[in-house]
Amino acid sequence: MKGRLARLSLVLLWWGTVAASLHDGGDAGMALLQRATGMSAGTALALVLLGCAWDAAIGLLILLRPGAHAYRLAAIGVVGMTLAATALVPALWLDPFGALLKNLPVLALLGGMTDKEARS
Q1: 113's torsion region: left (phi>0), alpha (psi -120 to 50) or beta?
Q2: Where does the source fall among the domains of life (predicted)?
Q3: Whole-angstrom distance, CA of residue 23 vs CA of residue 47
Q4: What whole-number distance in Å separates Cα of residue 60 and Cα of residue 74?
Q5: Cα–Cα distance between 90 and 31 in angstroms, integer?
Q6: How many domains does the chain have?
Q7: Residues of the domain holding 27
Q8: CA angle, corner 57, sides to 54 and 60, nearest 5?
Q9: Which among 31, 115, 25, 35 is positioned nearest to 72, based on CA atoms?
Q10: Widest distance between CA atoms in the chain
Q11: Per-residue pLDDT tens for 6-58?
């Protein structure tokens, strides 16, 4: 039962991230990237949408095909997005809502998931 709850919480985390990123059409994320980096609106929106597509796919993969492969891909994505966000907007580490800090316990949870737990 614990494995199923952990798995579902991860699915909700990824899909919730998509919903939060797209609630305003991606404008908030786009504006943040533009302010922090000076990139064009089109490039910033493309990065937001690419991140949303990745998050939606990982959430679906964890929901439908839980297992070591899904958790490894999710962890790779978390590390990659954390590194990219750190390079583009390092101040996110100081975000009071834990924009990047939350990724540390997420990685720990992903690392602790086993095939048996994930399917229970």
Answers
A1: beta
A2: Bacteria
A3: 16
A4: 11
A5: 15
A6: 1
A7: 2-119
A8: 150
A9: 115
A10: 47
A11: 999 999 999 999 999 999 999 999 999 999 999 999 999 999 999 999 999 99
Q: Inter-axis angle of helices 41-64 and 27-37, to 10 degrees?
A: 130
What span, in angstroms and rounded, lies between the C-alpha atoms of 68 and 114?
Answer: 7
pLDDT tens, position by position, 64-104: 999 999 999 999 999 999 999 999 999 999 999 999 999 99
User: Can you list the alpha helix ranges (DSSP code H) found in 23-113?
Assistant: 27-37, 41-64, 68-88, 103-112
Closest CA to 33 of 48, 16, 51: 48
Cα distances (Å, whole numbers) of residue 112 to 72, 79, 105? 11, 16, 10
Query: What whole-number distance in Å separates Cα of residue 109 and Cα of residue 113?
Result: 6
The single-letter code of the amino acid at 17 is T
